[in-house]
Each structure stands twice: as C-alpha cells, then as structure tokens.
Amino acid sequence: GQNIDQPTEMTATEGAIVQINCTYQTSGFNGLFWYQQHAGEAPTFLSYNVLDGLEEKGRFSSFLSRSKGYSYLLLKELQMKDSASYLCASLMDSNYQLIWGAGTKLIIKP
Amino acid sequence: DAGITQSPRYKITETGRQVTLMCHQTWSHSYMFWYRQDLGHGLRLIYYSAAADITDKGEVPDGYVVSRSKTENFPLTLESATRSQTSVYFCASSSSGQGGYEQYFGPGTRLTVT
C-alpha cells in the first residue's frame, strides 16, 4: 500500500523548537508537501520538497531524504498560533494524486 | 470574491437522499479535487478533474458522482446518502497536477447523514 506515517499528537512549549517527522513509501515518489490545518479550517500550504536537503522559510523549515523515505517539519520559536494539525502528503509520479498522512496535532503550552 | 468557495457549509440530510455539494473557484485552475476528512484518517481523494469534462476516480469514489461542465465549477453528488458518508468534505484546486503546485482548499462542507 501507499502509507504515510506521522505521529498522532505532539506537545511543545511556547518559544521552543519542535520537529514533526513523516515517513513515506519511496516507490514512485515525486515530492513531499507539508500543510497546516487549524481546527475547523481548511489545510493551507506550508512547503514542498522534491530534492534532498533542508528548505527554510522563516520560522518553518522542511527536510527531505529521498533514499530514506523521510521528511520532517521543523518549527522554531513556537507561538500559540502554531497550535494546529500538520499534514504530510506525498506526490506520486504515476498520477496526480497526493497521498496524505493522518496529520500530527501539535499542542503548544505556555 | 476571488478564491475557492463551497456551499453549503453545513448540511444535515437523511439516509437515502441525494445531496449535491458545490465548489466554485475563480482562478481558472485546471485541476480540481474532492476530498473527505474523517478522524483518524488523512484526507482521502474522492474524485479529481484535470480540466472541464475530464474527471477520474480517486481512492474512495463509491457512492459519489462528479461533473465538470465548466472549469470553475466541480459539484459532488451523493446519489443515495449513507451514514458512512458523514464527514467533512473539502474541495481543492491547483494550476497543475504535477510537480510542486500547491492545492488551494475551500472552507469545507460538514455533512451529517442521519
């Protein structure tokens, strides 16, 4: 099957750093997306990685290792508004579909 | 207003009834998608469309029908609603289906089937 795995829930402290991991099936892989979804709202795009390495975008960075089938989203200087679910999704080259993980609920504590 | 909109935002219907969820986008994006989101599952693709009059099944198409006569509209019809179709439905659009083109999501429709 085409599985994407990410932790169900994580807790972190305001001002700290948190890393959310995602593993995916490497066969047919063509890119990895991260989306943020606040409760009761639609997902919004955060990042896209297709090559190995780290992509930094302000407080958020995303890393990809194609050979290991592994990605992470790194959030720095956590703010209360970062409390949300973070969705990992892989793009397969056989079609235009994204395969989505179930999401990681991130809880930020003061 | 520009963007992607869905209607209705909330719907309660009875088992066996036909229900149509509407999706409209103003960007002239070629690709449009319908997802359902349930607790414990990732977003699951129901149907997608690469252009007007071109649609294809996703992961969970059974019980659903789509059409796309115009680029901007992509309605989703539940032919005979069942309780298992109680979910939050998201429509999304993208300028391309390939590469790193992000999908833009509508606000969602929360559907309850009683």
Tell me the series of helices and strands of chain A, N- to C-terminal.
EEEEEEEEEEE
Structural class of chain A: mainly beta
Number of strands of chain B: 11
The amount of beta strand of chain B, in percent, is: over 45%
Overall radius of gyration of chain A: 13 Å
Assign an overall shape of chain A: globular
Q: What proportion strand of chain A?
A: over 45%
Poorly predicted spans of chain A: none
Low-confidence stretches of chain B: none
Strand tally of chain A: 11
Give the quaternary arrangement of the chains.
heterodimer
Q: What is the end-to-end distance of chain B?
A: 33 Å
Overview of this structure, please?
The complex is a heterodimer of chains A (110) and B (114). Chain A has 110 residues and is an all-beta fold. Chain A has strands spanning 4-5, 9-13, 18-24, 29-37, 44-49, 53-57, 60-65, 70-75, 84-92, 98-100, 104-109. Chain B has 114 residues and is mainly β. Helices cover 0% and strands 48% of the residues of chain B. Chain B is globular. The termini of chain B are far apart. Classes of the chains: A mainly beta (110), B mainly beta (114). At the A-B interface, strand 4, strand 5, strand 9 and strand 10 of A face strand 5 and strand 10 of B.
Short structural summary:
The complex is a heterodimer of chains A (110) and B (114). By secondary structure, chain A is mostly beta strands.
Task: Set down the secondary structure blueprint.
The complex is a heterodimer of chains A (110) and B (114).
Chain A: E1 4-5, E2 9-13, E3 18-24, E4 29-37, E5 44-49, E6 53-57, E7 60-65, E8 70-75, E9 84-92, E10 98-100, E11 104-109
Parallel strand pairs in A: 2-11
Antiparallel strand pairs in A: 1-3, 3-8, 4-5, 4-9, 6-7, 7-8, 9-10, 9-11
Chain B: E1 4-7, E2 10-13, E3 19-25, E4 31-37, E5 44-51, E6 54-57, E7 64-66, E8 76-78, E9 87-94, E10 104-105, E11 109-113
Parallel strand pairs in B: 2-11
Antiparallel strand pairs in B: 1-3, 3-8, 4-5, 4-9, 5-6, 7-8, 9-10, 9-11
